[in-house]
Specification:
The chain has 5 helices and 2 strands, in the order αααααββ. It has 120 residues and is of the alpha+beta class. The protein starts with 9 loop residues before the first helix and ends in a 6-residue tail after the last strand.
C-alpha cells in the first residue's frame, strides 16, 4: 500500500504464476491461502473456483479432471493479470459488479469497481 492505493506485490504474483497444479487437498489449501487476499479483488471468482472448492468437501474424492484444471489455470491467470488491483481512475468509465455468496453459514457481498482493460 502506498500513496496511490493498494497494489500487488510482484514476487507474490510470480509465486501464483509458478504454483504447480495441486495433487491433493493440502496443495489446494496452500494455493487458496496464497491467493485468498487477492480473490476479494477479482469479480466472479466464487463461480470460477467452484470446481476447486468442491474438491475440498469431505464427501468428494480427489479427482482433478479438465474442469478443475481449467479452473486452476483461469484463477492463476486472472489473479496475476494487470486488471486485479488496478489503480482506480475516477475519470474512466466504471462498472459496478456485486456477488452474493455464503461462507461458514453467513451471507457476504463482494462489490467491485471495474474499468475496461482498454482504459487501464
Amino acid at each position: 500500500m502506498d500513496s496511490r492505493g493498494i497494489s500487488k506485490d510482484p514476487p507474490n504474483v510470480q509465486a501464483i504464476k509458478d504454483f504447480s497444479e495441486p495433487e491433493a487437498v493440502t496443495g489446494l489449501r496452500e494455493f487458496f491461502g496464497m491467493t485468498n487476499q487477492l480473490m476479494t479483488f477479482c469479480p466472479n471468482l466464487t463461480d470460477l473456483t467452484k470446481p476447486l472448492r468442491d474438491l475440498q468437501k469431505r464427501e468428494t474424492a480427489w479427482i482433478c479432471e479438465s474442469d478443475q484444471q481449467r479452473a486452476f489455470c483461469d484463477v492463476k491467470q486472472k489473479l496475476s493479470s494487470d486488471r486485479v488491483l488496478a489503480i482506480y481512475r475516477p475519470n474512466k468509465e466504471t462498472v459496478v459488479s456485486a456477488e452474493l455468496y455464503s461462507f461458514n453459514g453467513s451471507r457476504q457481498v463482494n462489490i467491485h469497481l471495474l474499468h475496461t482493460l482498454a482504459d487501464l
